[in-house]
Amino acid sequence: MDRLVNTVRPYAWGSVTAIPELLGQQPTGGPQAELWMGAHPGAPSRADRGDGPRALDELIAADPQGELGAATVARFGTGLPFLFKVLAAGIPLSIQAHPTLEQARTGFAAEEALGIPADAPHRNYRDANHKPELICALDEFDGLCGFRRPADAARLMAALDVPALTPLIDLLRREPASDALREALATVLSMDGDTAAPIVRATADAVDKAAAGDPQGPYAPYALIARTFPGDIGLLAGMLLNHVRLQPGEALYLGAGVPHGYLYGTAVELMANSDNVLRAGLTPKHIDVPELLKVVGFTPSDPDVLRPVPVPGTPGEELYPVPIDEFRLSRFRLGDEPRRIDGRAPQILLCTAGTARLTAADGQTLDLARGESAFLPATGAHTALAGPGATLFRATVTL
After folding, report:
1. CA distance 160 to 207
2. pTM of the model
3. Annotated catalytic residue: which of 148, 279, 328, 331?
4. What pLDDT shows up at residue 376?
5. Which residues pair with 40 in a beta bridge?
6. What distance in Å separates the CA atoms of residue 220 and residue 98, rounded to the nearest whole number?
7. Contact at 8 Å (CB) between 339 and 314?
8. Is 258 a residue whose pLDDT tops 90?
9. How far apart are CA 376 and CA 345, in angstroms?
10. What is the mean pLDDT of the chain?
């Protein structure tokens, strides 16, 4: 078992207080957006096995089968298949979507062939992997997820009584729904600045007025967006999406092509080991409209809120079921009675409440306080978990 030393990413949208509070540290005064746990080369965790801290990706590369297990290597390759995070949004993130595995491989190869530097601001594909993800709320968490039915988006906009929105509303009333959504998003993102500015300004004024009269109503998330990103076309793109509010312990799975954006709150996030993002607003970063339109799926859907279900054969474990095997998220709410987890696959354990004690089959123990995490290589042996009042999230793969 390795206690992990993790990197905090100070993205501008991060909360100033949430991650320091989780870690029991004083705030730096700047935003602290994401705590990365894993072996992504962008910010790998570090572990000390007696010869000083070493990056987790280096440890795995030195002995993939010993760290990940033969079954994981055979199924997913020689890198840790997932990236685990704590995400703390103080203001809204960009609206975005992620590619399929085939799209990522094709896009990455094309940009490599063009010689575009990996850190270039206009680069879309920073690796050749897809990025499905699961977000699980630690406190009340607001986000946008998936397209509204176009008729519902049209009604939301029409009720604002903004004449400049009429052409967009008319687009949304066309059939079929997927074509209406595609044309509406393409129209919004293709507007030049002079065209967009008065429409966004009038819409921002209208949603702000509507939210002032009903602070918990349907326009409140868009008023937050308008105040945070004045003049940003993402306000209109965001109104095409469903608003969802997760309660602690609830989760969302976001597969390839699902447009989404996180607005506010703290959550654990588990994803395939990738950093591929196509953006659609609420950001000063590059927006590649043609590539985004290739990646996004334009089928309207209601947000599918996940709640954990008991795992047969593993007392105390609650699983968030997802349709892929590269990552698996579960939760333990621990007590005095030890709970056992198998060690056939690599895993990262994160304590989010109390203090959890991990006991390996050889008797080694490791205590994790709130905000601390550990990497467990695939030894094949069981590990016992205990700790009255502790909550532990388990990230691993499905074999």
Report:
1. 7
2. 0.94
3. 279
4. 98
5. none
6. 26
7. yes
8. yes
9. 8
10. 96
